[in-house]
Automatic annotation (TrEMBL):
Superkingdom of origin: Eukaryota
Family to which this protein belongs: Belongs to the AAA ATPase family. BCS1 subfamily.
Keywords: ATP-binding, Magnesium, Nucleotide-binding
Regions that span the bilayer: none
Reactions the enzyme catalyzes: ATP + H2O = ADP + phosphate + H(+)
Keyword Cell membrane in annotation: no
Required co-factors: Mg(2+)
Residue numbers spanned by region Disordered: 437-495
SMART domains in the record: AAA
A single MF term (Gene Ontology): ATP binding
One Gene Ontology biological process: response to stress
Name of this protein: AAA+ ATPase domain-containing protein
AAA+ ATPase domain location: 239-375
């Protein structure tokens, strides 16, 4: 009896150890032969054969939280990765939040299973926990709980798993961690990246009011850029991309920069050129920037005189005591930071026409983005941001006004924020649009009047000149009388 239960227990243990299925099969056959009546033997043998056929194809890999004293990177990566695979059908989940993060993290609990499909193969994950004894010189033997993942898969996918699946998990977990990371904005003082603060700008492409088509183009451009490491290598170009944002104040240039950083999960390096004394200092700062970061130079037209490159050439003999346009161009062309990769460079300006054509030349800044006044697309986004509405009886009227009136998204936002009551807020906006329309009509009228005045001034000046000319030629001082004198004469021939 004792030997029988021992044999059964051994069989059970073997059954759970997929790596030793062949041995288990042999043992099971022995058990069948020894303990089952002959008529049941053939039936049981067939069943066991099928079962082991299936099990022998299944392999299990154990991924422990720690290996000895070392933490296991693969376990951490799998934890992050599997978090993204949690499905609503799972019965037991765990929730946690640390004080320094403002997010609740959901993970799955011990004994829950997750099935993941990768490159056509099925991987079955289960989190388990087991008690182990640990000897310690101080406390002697203590028991600890060790977490581990059991990963089961068909043995034919073993190579795929070892070569691709684990690296996929490690790669994805890096991305997930990057997405969870708090973004920073770093500023320079003189020639050093001096202090960083958390970037908590809430702008995203979703909340940005701009032409829908332009928004889509920018998002696609960014997404393509980050995927193109190999492409840039192949064409021999630094893995960088430059954007020039231009438009009047309050049209969302800085908001777009924040949206780009939030979208790519890149830190921002906000460079104040006025803090710098030379191109060398500029180089030092660029070299000190990490990968996956965004260099931002706002109001580039105000930071440095970028109008006349010829002047720069003329003063070339001067010591390098300022940041020059060619310094900036080198930074755009990526000459000083060929070691760095995955960089975005963004310049902003309110006045594109003040920039040197060298900076605007094709191939220099990859995309020129015009941030314009608020149109119907932009207004819809703002109405949804501030009042969670996507339609309202007054939208049509507003759309019509927006076609005529130049108003910035910042001005529209301000009106929408004035009241929680959407009707009051929209009424305020309509009043603003009417006021602006009136102002611009008056301005137009004034401009036309001044044009007329100029024309009139010009005419009277011309008349005055003609008068003086006639005076000097004829000695007659009264214009009326000149007309009388010359009468029908051919003036040009006479004069
Ligand atoms: N396109 C936009 N979409 C959403 N909100 C906007 C947009 N433009 C402006 N705003 C609102 O107006 C505020 C000011 O906009 P922002 O600072 O982005 O403008 P800017 O173009 O950078 O102006 P400046 O030229 O003065 O630097 C933002 O915080 C935001 O609330
Ligand atoms: Mg700005």
């Amino acid at each position: 009896m004792e030997s029988r239960s021992k044999a059964m227990e051994t069989t059970k243990n073997y059954l759970t150890t997929a790596a030793s299925v062949a041995a288990s099969a042999m043992l099971a056959r022995t058990v069948i032969n020894e303990f089952l009546p002959s008529e049941l033997r053939s039936l049981a043998s067939m069943g066991i054969h099928k079962l082991f056929g299936r099990l022998s194809a299944e392999q299990t890999i154990i991924i422990r939280q720690t290996e000895g004293l070392n933490s296991n990177e693969l376990y951490d990566a799998a934890s992050s990765y599997l978090r993204t695979k949690i499905s609503p059908t799972m019965k037991r989940l765990r929730a946690s939040k640390s004080e320094d993060k403002n997010k609740v993290v959901i993970t799955f609990d011990v004994d829950e299973e997750i099935i993941d499909i990768f490159q056509g193969a099925e991987y079955k994950w289960k989190l388990t926990s087991q008690e182990e004894t640990q000897s310690n010189s101080r406390y002697g033997e203590t028991s600890i709980q060790v977490r581990l993942f059991e990963l089961k898969f068909h043995s034919k996918y073993k190579d795929v798993m070892l070569n691709n699946y684990f690296s996929h998990i490690l790669e994805r977990s890096k991305e997930i961690k990057a997405a969870d990371r708090q973004l920073k904005i770093t500023m320079n003082q003189y020639d050093e990246w001096h202090y960083s603060i958390e970037l908590n700008h809430p702008a995203t492409f979703g909340t940005l009011a701009m032409d829908a088509e332009l928004k889509r183009t920018i998002m696609e451009d960014l997404a393509r850029f980050v995927k193109r490491k190999e492409y840039y290598k192949r064409i021999g170009k630094a893995w960088k991309r430059g954007y020039l944002l231009f438009g009047p104040p309050g049209t969302g240039k800085s908001s777009l920069i924040a949206a780009m950083a939030n979208y790519l999960r890149f830190d921002i390096y906000d460079l104040d050129l006025k803090e710098l004394c030379s191109n060398t200092e500029l180089k030092t700062l660029l070299v000190g920037m990490p990968n996956k970061s965004m260099l931002v130079i706002e109001d580039i037209d105000c930071s440095i005189d970028l109008r006349n490159r010829d002047e720069e050439k003329e003063t070339k003999s001067k010591p390098e005591d300022e940041v020059t346009l060619s310094g900036i161009l080198n930074c755009v062309d990526g000459l000083w930071s060929t070691s760095g990769e995955e960089r975005i460079i963004v310049f902003t300006t309110n006045y594109k026409d003040r920039l040197d054509p060298a900076l605007l030349r094709p191939g220099r800044m990859d995309m020129h983005i015009h941030m314009g006044h608020c149109g119907p697309d932009g207004f819809r986004v703002l109405a949804s941001n501030y009042h969670c509405i996507d339609d309202h009886p007054r939208f049509e009227e507003i759309d019509e006004l927006l076609k005529e009136v130049e108003v910035t998204p910042a001005e529209v936002s301000e009106e929408l924020l004035r009241s929680d009551d959407v009707d009051i807020a929209l009424r305020g906006l309509i009043q603003l649009l009417h006021k602006k329309r009136k102002e611009s009509q008056e301005e137009k009228r004034r401009a036309e009047d001044s044009q007329d005045n100029k024309q009139r001034d010009g005419d009277s000046k011309q008349i005055e000149e003609e008068k003086q000319h006639v005076e000097s030629e004829t000695g007659v001082s009264d214009y009326e009388s000149i007309e009388e004198i010359i009468g029908d004469q051919d003036w040009s021939r006479d004069v």
